[in-house]
């Protein structure tokens, strides 16, 4: 054991006894300590000599790599040792531990990997979760898995959660479990008053210009070093350019996560005597990390937080307003050594409208990685102790993506590919690409898609093909007029780190075609050209490329990233993609390519058979021919009649007449006369029409269907009775047989008056029960009168009609008493 650490005088020393008691008895505790209390570096050291620790390690989880290194170095300094002795640290890219290490500071992913490898965490006595208030997705996951392991495998494992600002009661309930809430120990911080000065930019001012102006003001007006909070590396570089005039008296130092470790250390180190320092930092300096010498904080009020980006299919950082709690944390950095000053680049009114706390990442981020971790762990989300459970819809979508990527099977269990993916520090899409391909090309593509673009310019100004970008990374000597050399160096360094982690040799050889490799990450983003830069994704979604883009001439591409639509357009623009050949699409899609044979009606109204090879909405190949004889053709023809009506069939006048007679019989005589109207026939098409089409192949065969025979067949033995009761013709007084029109109600006959002379009994059908409507016609065939009572007509209004007819048709016979006259077509003139 190392020599005891001398008292530090930091406020947290006063509550160490309470922490020891809580961990010794309950096994879990929460330390709520304000910034400057010393919790990160003092607490682990003070717990080294606890009996329950035995020879086990204290594992301290830090949310950021920079804070991990800084905390380990500070604790080692307090012990008078070098890092890697009693205190060590481990990140995904660095390892400084040794056989004597008893306090190990690790980043979030390291703890999760250990838990997945062995949930019992052998050799670990205590897990400390620092800065849990930041609510990183990985922290929430690691805490849930640790508590699950403690409950099922390691009841002796101690768990301590620490933060400056947290919801202590909720977290206490989570850590305490069924035995009641965990003890909460509170320590005041070592802070001094901070004078807040509000500097909202003018209505037309740019935020970064206003930040640079506030720094200039602070350097002129106040002593001490300046810590500036900006949302990301791009903003830091721009503000650094605006502060170039401060040199050489002031050192302007960037500080962000992807910076090289030596440059991060330079930002944390005090400037030489007589010089001042301005540290331009992301929220990496908001907590856990102490930037010595700072008396002034300039806060731009923005932060970059991960959010699922539907256009890239990955989690991307999006700039948003920092919460009130973050603003308090940031300003507090100015009061660590003495009274300080805080400049806020927004107004008090806007501050009051901001969120009190930032939402947890689990509520907004892409959950594909979380879903894969849960599948490998073998537990559903609702069975674990999450402070905020993952949203069910987002988790279901993430699981569906894993299934499409082949990471989980139909039962949600991880596949061999899924287990290989989970060990890579990448989004599952990119992890699949690297795990399957295992090549420098896959590593470079994964890194390119996680980092910012190597090429400067708006999306519409840049070619979309990733191939050139890959070559720019693999060959540092390659030039491009729009290259961002800083971004290229970062991507190359990250790619080399990832290759080492994955056991892949990183070389400078030509990487080969990017399309098939990229499609391993984006199998759902394969697209086919529709001409003139328009493409259709296999999901059916349309995207566009500038017509002049070289990829616009390709038949197939795979899309990795999209940009919003151009002005006046509705479809997203392809930002990053690679070409595919049809053979590569067939190979990649494998069993997902289906052959579909279907019958369809073409523009000419003809039925044809189409055979298509499809990848979801994409048609890879198509063959068209005549429809074959068979049940599918019969069904298609029947459906066409059902949709367009019985008029497609071979109707004759006799068929319509028989249908009308049968309809009359059913209306006036009721059952058991069958229903033969169009609606009834359509409702029963499969029974009577389909059998008639057993040799049919097209629409012309519908016109050959003998509807009259069909109707006769449906009437069956009642056909003869119909002829008797509802005849199609009746004989009139002249002896002529005239047709009955049953499409009227009542049925109608039309007869010239002269043929009706001598009619004393009105003609009827339905065995005398239904009088016909008789349309009395002139010799020219024009209607004179419609009557259902000819004897009454003769005795009544005939006299007036007769008088008019004599004057109009003087050559025809118009007797005064037609009932007593002989029927004739050319009767003598009478009075």
In total, the number of strands is: 31
Q: Sheet bearing the most strands, described?
A: 8 strands, mixed
**Spatial strand order of the main sheet:** 4-3-5-2-6-7-1-8
Please tell me how large the radius of gyration is: 44 Å
- C-alpha termini separation: 147 Å
Q: Looking at the structure, what is the overall shape? A: elongated
- The CATH superfamily of the largest domain bears the name P-loop containing nucleotide triphosphate hydrolases
Figure out the total of helices.
Answer: 30
Assigned CATH class of the largest domain: Alpha Beta
How many structurally independent domains?
7
Structural class: alpha/beta
Low-confidence stretches: 826-831
Q: What is the architecture of the largest domain at the second tier of CATH?
A: 3-Layer(aba) Sandwich
Task: Give the rounded overall mean pLDDT.
Answer: 90
Q: What's the CATH topology label of the largest domain?
A: Rossmann fold
In what range is the share of β-strand residues?
A: 15-25%
Helix content: 25-40%
